[in-house]
Write a structure and sequence with these properties.
By secondary structure, this protein is mainly alpha-helical. The protein is built from 13 helices and eleven strands. The strands form four sheets. The chain has a three-stranded antiparallel sheet. It has a three-stranded antiparallel sheet with strand order 6-7-8, with no helix packed on it. A hairpin with a 5-residue loop joins strand 7 and strand 8 (239-240). The longest helix is centred in the middle third of the chain and has 18 residues, at 119-136.
Length: 351
């Protein structure tokens, strides 16, 4: 009885999130519209429940499965949600610690080519399971979400001078694993999920994890652009981790999106990201050591992140071409739906 009551607290906490509150009626279909989900699913969801990363050699990963589950929940597509979760459970939940292998390659045998976990993948999966479980009356989803969250917290939370850190995976990132460890990736902090994870797993301090991430995002300003690197060493003074490019790259561009979706609208922080990454017609990725651009991303899903930040900062609504969804590649398409679903719920004036 105690466990059951604790699990269903996820519904109460989800009500405080930027996502729809579990109410028994399901989320508003306007957050991810039926036609948007159909287009997304046609482009990236296989009949088996596998979400295909079309920009990364057609592989699948725990992050993609978690995103697919979250978007299916926001679209009220229960059958598709179950299909994505079933693939995840059968093909990726193969570790003996309750966590999920991060990489699945259809061209390999066996297809799991890296058994290490990715902590953001677990967070997204557990978060989606908790929201769906509370909203759709599925205590089995809540139970699995609780087990996964506790297993993740026990395995990757690392108390250090900078606060309670979220390691990117079980293996390879701690001070014991690396000379420059611990190493973190701030884009793994899915801020909107932490209150729900705290309800699922009161044995670990997820509130402290969230606070650590907020502080690190606000204070880690490297190079002329003043941005955090993709992979951040916290062995001493924060710096780019060894053996990784010193870049604000494809992973890191999610940081401001996760802040915004969690309602963390600090003007100074959002302005800093916007100034460093907005080129008008594209989203700029940069080398933090040299200050040089390494890529300018022009797909709508990337540009929508800065358009949302600009709206929050009072600079006008999203352009018309970003207010409608058409799939491109898996990653920017996913980000685009995350922007639109948030704006429809919390910032309709931006559309």
């Amino acid at each position: 009885m105690i466990q059951s009551a604790r699990l269903f607290q996820a519904g109460a906490l989800a009500a405080a999130m930027v996502l729809p509150a579990p109410s028994g009626a399901g989320p508003s279909p306007e957050l991810v519209r039926p036609e948007e989900w159909r287009a997304y699913a046609e482009a990236f969801l296989e009949p088996s429940g596998r979400i295909v990363d079309t920009g990364n050699g057609g592989i699948s990963h725990s992050e993609g499965q978690g995103y697919g589950m979250l978007l299916a929940y926001l679209a009220s597509m229960q059958a598709d949600f179950e299909r994505i979760w079933s693939f995840t459970q059968a093909e990726l939940k193969v570790r003996d610690d309750g966590l999920v292998a991060w990489k699945w390659d259809p061209g390999a045998e066996p297809p799991v080519t890296d058994i290490n976990n990715a902590s953001d993948g677990e967070i997204l999966i557990a978060y989606a399971l908790a929201l769906a479980g509370a909203d759709w009356g599925r205590p089995d989803y809540l139970e699995i979400a609780s087990q996964m969250t506790t297993a993740l917290g026990d395995a990757v939370l690392d108390p250090r001078a900078y606060g309670l850190l979220l390691l990117p995976g079980v293996d390879g990132f701690s001070a014991e694993d690396r000379a420059d460890g611990p190493v973190v990736n701030l884009s793994y902090w899915v801020f909107e999920a932490f209150p729900v994870l705290a309800a699922l797993d009161p044995s670990n301090d997820w509130k402290a994890v969230s606070q650590t991430g907020e502080t690190l995002v606000a204070t880690t300003q490297i190079g002329a652009r003043g941005l955090p690197p993709e992979w951040l060493s916290l062995a001493d003074v924060p710096k780019s981790a060894e053996e990784f490019a010193p870049e604000f790259g494809y992973n890191a561009l999610r940081i401001p999106l996760y802040l915004m979706r969690a309602g963390l609208h600090d003007q100074k922080t959002l302005s800093r990201f916007l100034k460093a990454t907005d080129l008008g017609g594209g989203y700029a990725l940069s080398d933090l050591a040299s200050g040089e651009l390494v890529a300018v991303l022009e797909e709508p899903g990337y540009r929508a992140i800065n358009a949302l930040a600009g709206c929050i900062l009072g600079r006008g609504s999203l352009p018309a071409d970003l207010s409608d969804f058409e799939p491109t590649h898996y990653y920017p398409s996913t980000l685009h739906l995350l922007v639109l679903s948030y704006a429809r719920k919390e910032m309709p004036q931006c559309l």
